[in-house]
Amino acid sequence: MRMPIARAALAASLIVFVAACEKKAEDTAATAAAPAAAKTEGPDAAIQKSVALLKQGDIGGLMQHALPPAEFAKAKADWGKDAQPVTDEDRKKFAETMEKLTAPDAEAKLYAELEPQLKTFDATYQQQIPMYVSMGSGWLQGMVQQNKDMSEPEKQQALAAINATAAWVQKTRFTDPEAVKKVLAVVTKTARALNLKSADEARALTYDQSMEKARIGVQGVKEALAVYGFSLDQTLDSVKSEVISNDGKTAKVKISYTLFDTPLTGETEMVNLDGRWYGKHALEKAEDKAAATAGAAPAAPADAAAEAPAKD
């Protein structure tokens, strides 16, 4: 059983959730047609709006909130275009997994399969958990340190979040039988709520349909984490934003929150575009992607012309 890897993955997932509070907090409730509202709801309100959307599990709303209208419209229109074709192997694995998760007695059967592994893990690896947690957090810290897109304050914020998460992982017994049973109940309930019959159906979901499924998935993750004493809602409720500087075009906002009883603080930069506040990092990413797409677009006709047969 690969519990150490699972724990490291869980820790990474939590860091992603926390990062979302400040990285994807880039919009305001004000509209471009009402610039006066932008003055009322500033960059701090933009961040709190993102936190509220994340708490609701509204990933679609969070994406719309994070991107300028044109970029969001393009992202929505391009949804699924790069997806790989569904293979027979994909269909088989999907069908087997969903059948196992949605069967009437799924919870009992799944626990019966896991129980021997849980006992083996507790007997063999439980005492080595501190070492595995240290290795996992060290790996995550290395990724943060090497990330060229993060500023030094952002790196320090991420490192502090990793340390807080590692401390929680180390003291939490994920293999506790009663806790595992509760998590399995959440997983099977979530799988039934997704109501996906085949891999082809899942791949054919529209953007809006996918976002509704994502909301169900986020709710499932929150319930599963709560079994182990981590309330994502409580963490999100603790988020406070304070404007440090704002010249109307750019702003710096201090973000404070509590993660696993550990108070954390960081800063994020915001940009006012057409009367709405966006995260500077998100805008730069969108601009880079647009530039890359524009630069690649002329290549297709040129290549086609080069490959066309010569005329006599």
Mean model confidence by pLDDT: 82
Count of DSSP strands: 4
Low-confidence stretches: 1-40, 299-312
Report the sheet with the most strands, covering strand number, pairing sense and barrel closure: 4 strands, antiparallel
Question: Roughly how many Å is the radius of gyration?
Answer: 23 Å
Strand percentage: 5-15%
Number of helices: 15
**Overall form:** globular
Strands of the biggest beta sheet: in what spatial order? 1-2-3-4
Question: Structural class given helices, strands, pairing?
Answer: alpha+beta
Helical content, roughly? Answer: 55-70%
- The first-to-last residue Cα distance is 67 Å
Explain the layout of strands and helices.
Elements: H1 3-23, H2 35-40, H3 43-56, H4 59-66, H5 69-77, H6 88-102, H7 106-124, H8 129-146, H9 152-171, H10 177-194, H11 199-203, H12 207-227, H13 232-237, E1 240-246, E2 250-259, E3 262-273, E4 276-279, H14 280-296, H15 299-307
Antiparallel strand pairs: 1-2, 2-3, 3-4
Give an overview in words.
The protein has 312 residues and is of the alpha+beta class. It has one domain. The chain is 66% helix and 11% strand. It has a four-stranded antiparallel β-sheet, with helices on both faces. A hairpin with a 2-residue loop joins β2 and β3 (262-273). The longest helix is centred in the first third of the chain and has 21 residues, at 3-23. It is globular and about 60 Å long. Residues 1-40 and 299-312 have low confidence and may be disordered.
